[in-house]
Amino acid sequence: MPLNDMPWWRWRANVRSALHMLSDPAFQQGVWLPGVPGYGDVTDAVYRLVEDTWLDNWSAEKYVGTVFRDSQEAALVDVAVLRFLRILHQVGADAPASGYFQHHGWPEAVRAARDAHVRLAANDGEDPDTPPRSLEELTTVLHTI
């Protein structure tokens, strides 16, 4: 299924982008840790999860049929969002990437993001193991489809 078959597909694209980056330890070590430009940082990714959807205030279940295809997607996203928000609040929004990566809950949060990312990518007919897109590529997708 194409990404843009969902009514609020742009929100889905932002959530998927964030989950993709948050679920990929190799990406995090190779891009976020050294501060490679073009991909934002951990705080940017968490913000993309919640900026339009307000998933920091209510369940993703609210968006089944508009952003998420089914309740399983929504449940997986909820778990990931809650884990990353907890870490963000404990470590601080302005912390360096290493501060997040050293948090005791980081591996569990990454696994939750991976579970959600794999489900959403598979439901969109995409390979979950492709490298994350840059923010410029995401912007292009959001404005060309």
Helix count from the secondary structure assignment: 7
Can you write the helix and strand succession as a string?
A: HHHHHHH
- Report the end-to-end length measured between terminal Cα atoms: 14 Å
How much β-strand is present in the residues?
under 5%
- Radius of gyration (CA) equals 14 Å
What's the main sheet like?
A: none
Arithmetic mean of pLDDT = 94
Overall structural class, as computed from helix and strand content, comes to: mainly alpha
- Unreliable segments of 5+ consecutive residues: none
Number of strands: 0
Helical content class = 55-70%
Describe the oligomeric state of these chains in a short phrase: single chain
Outline: globular
Compose a concise summary of this entry.
By secondary structure, this protein is mainly α.
Key features of this structure:
145 residues; 0% strand; mainly alpha
Overview of the molecule:
This protein has helices spanning about 10-20, 25-30, 40-50, 70-90, 95-100, 105-125, 135-145. It is mostly helical and about 140 residues long. The protein is globular. The model has no long low-confidence stretch (mean pLDDT about 95).
